[in-house]
Amino acid sequence: MNDTVSAKPISQRLFDQPVSRLHTNSLKWEKYAGKDILPMWVADMDFAVAEPIQAALVERIAHPVYGYTVPGDALKDAIIAHLKNEYDWAIQEDWLVFLPGVVTGLAVSCRAFCEDDDNILVNPPIYHHFYDSHEGKRQSLVKVPLHKSGGRWTYDLNSMRTALTPEVTMIMMCSPHNPTGTVFTADELSEVCDMCVNNNMMIISDEIHCDLVIDGESRHIPTAVASPQHADNIVTLMSASKTWNLAGLNTSFAIISNAQRREQFIAAAQSIVSPTPPLAHVATEAAYRAGGEWRAELLTYLKSNYDRIAVALDSIPGLHLEPLQATYLAWIDATELGLNDTQAYFEKHGVGLSSGEQFGQPHFLRLNFACPASTLDQGLDRIEKAVAALR
Ligand SMILES: Cc1ncc(COP(=O)(O)O)c(C=O)c1O
Predict the structure, then answer these.
(1) What is residue 14's predicted lDDT score, i.e. its pLDDT?
(2) Atom of ligand 1 minimally distant from the CA of 174
(3) What whole-number distance in Å separates Cα of residue 143 and Cα of residue 17?
(4) Does residue 224 fall inside a structural domain?
(5) How far is the CA of 235 from the CAs of 239, 262, 288, in angstroms?
(6) What are the helix (H) ranges across the chain?
(7) Does the Cβ of 103 fall within 6 Å of ligand 1?
(8) Where in the sequence is the domain holding 120, given as residue range(s)?
(9) Residue 285 included in any domain
(10) Is the CB of 247 under 6 A from ligand 1?
(11) 263 and 220 in a common domain
(12) Residues near 366 by Cβ (< 8 Å), separated by ≥ 6?
């Protein structure tokens, strides 16, 4: 190893390394198989998982029986310790309900806590499954867009207050927020909770991106920590899947402190939701127990990738990068380009971004920057050329 290589910070060496995902049936890469289009869309990372996670999986795989498996005490202890260490949140073991996905948790919540003709409050732009998790024939959505305040996207409390009627019985929150990257403050969260509980609502808080605060300043605060007095009305959904790149292993969990709400939730999941798989238990436990150092390096790398995007977009007219506190998903305003189908235009120029339309802002693009810097640079170069071709 020469001096230049050994002097590089560990993060560079870990994450600079491209890992080919071709022939793994990766959702992200298969979409453009055989085409010269760089996939920068669905939210998983092109990085190899942390070594302790892979080692734990290899060890478990060596035991040749993969039958139904309950989440063990060691897994639960690892989650409890993580929440205490990171968020000073002391949860109890029996508050945990394991699920194969956070989206499953959204859907189960709608079935558990909503009656026919109830309305559910969501705040666009928002992760697209917030629009389709409810039972379409039985409940409907009330959409109150986030607004820009102090340069970042946050809740528009006045408009929300106006929209609340007795039929609005639940809110689905996303914190940190996909796609805008906002980390909400304790005040912002507690104001929303106060308003919702005054209206007798349940609060479903999707916190899947909680461990991905990258700006070096903000702190994620669980909604139930910001509003402990409303904990009986709060269901928190979390997973190690985004931060430690385990989405294909299908394990997440709900945290529900109120016993009656928890029973309602479990009853709604009965016979519909499958048990979580043993490999996912092992990986999740290893992530929380031994993935701390890897995560710290990841956050540094992601921040540096975000800064690369900021520099590149600064000199691309018509594209505006939104400020981002968390996630690896850059939210880009492309309105000034005046394109009919912005996503398709960039795809034609070799970059596969997510269309803002699926989140509720058609002229925006979402760029997944959880990839080696060299791949990101290639994507940014293509974006620059695509915009130049418009002139
Ligand atoms: C806010 C949010 N919730 C849920 C999910 C998906 O969670 P899961 O794969 O556990 O269903 C994502 C994936 O990107 C997400 O961004």
Answers:
(1) 86
(2) 1
(3) 42
(4) yes
(5) 14, 9, 21
(6) 3-7, 10-16, 27-30, 51-62, 73-87, 102-113, 157-163, 186-198, 223-226, 259-269, 278-290, 292-314, 342-348, 373-388
(7) yes
(8) 65-290
(9) yes
(10) yes
(11) yes
(12) 41, 179, 329, 330, 331, 332, 353, 354, 355, 356, 359
The residue among 232, 264, 290 that closes a domain is: 290
Structure tokens at 320: 């505006």
Averages of pLDDT over runs of 10 residues in the chain (391 residues) are 50 85 94 97 97 98 97 98 98 98 98 97 98 92 96 97 98 98 98 98 98 97 98 98 97 98 98 96 98 96 97 97 98 97 98 97 97 98 98 86
- What is the C-alpha separation between 6 and 353, in angstroms, rounded? 34
- Cα of 237 to ligand 1 centre, how many Å? 10
**Cα 36 to Cα 23: distance, rounded to the nearest angstrom:** 16
Q: Which residue type sits at 255? A: I
| Cα 358 to ligand 1 centroid, rounded to whole Å | 14
Model-level pTM?
A: 0.96
How remote is the CA of residue 112 from the centroid of ligand 1, in Å?
A: 19
- Cα 229 from chain centroid? 26
